[in-house]
Amino acid sequence: MHLTPQHILIAGASGLTGEHLLDRLLNEPTVTRVVAPSRRPLASHPHLENPIGDLQQLLLQLSGPVDVAFCCLGTTIKQAGSQDAFRAVDHDLVIAFAQRALELGARHLLVISAIGADANSGVFYNRIKGETEQALKAQNWPQLTIVRPSLLIGPRKEFRLGERLAAPLSRLLPGKYRGISANVLAHAMWRLALEDDSGCRIIESDQLRRLGR
Fold first, then answer.
1. How many CA atoms lie within 13 A of 7 on its CB side?
2. How do residues 186-197 score in pLDDT, each as one tens digit?
3. CA distance 42 to 50
4. Which of 11, 40, 127, 206 is 20 to 30 Å from 114 by CA-CA measure?
5. What does pTM read for this prediction?
6. Neighbours of 101 (CB within 10 A)
7. Contacts of 4 (CB under 8 A, 6+ apart)
């Protein structure tokens, strides 16, 4: 069964995947309202509401109704400055955003996690992603879609040396480990948002590439 969501809430709309997703949402004829809080102003659009400021501070100001929520939040330990600061974004802020979206009536949350997410992992990054997934499941969403892309490929506003060096090699990797373009991921997430499947599902990177073609 396919849905036609009209009211969308998106976090991380100024990021690599979020930009592509926002552009797609604003050009979908069924979407009449997109709420996209951000630190910096986004390009204006008749269907876009763009509260400006710190997301944590803006959450209580957001209003419904909301049909579907997308969470494209994510940083790196280097960019955040410490493990605690990384956790504050990739765990705490993601959970707070999801809870607010649920309060506003959203029945479906789509969230970007990462390949290798595992709450029991010895790798800090993977462990935080896994713990975030567990916390989202505990919110008892009517429909929760967790996407686990591999290395995201595309031009970022900020320079990430590791990603720049790894991107060419990631295209040669097999299966779910091959790099995925941000625009392909965004397309896949929109297609998944149109599907009415109750419960939680986890979509790995190779599936996302097929859906995003």
1. 11
2. 999 999 999 988
3. 7
4. 40
5. 0.89
6. 27
7. 30, 194
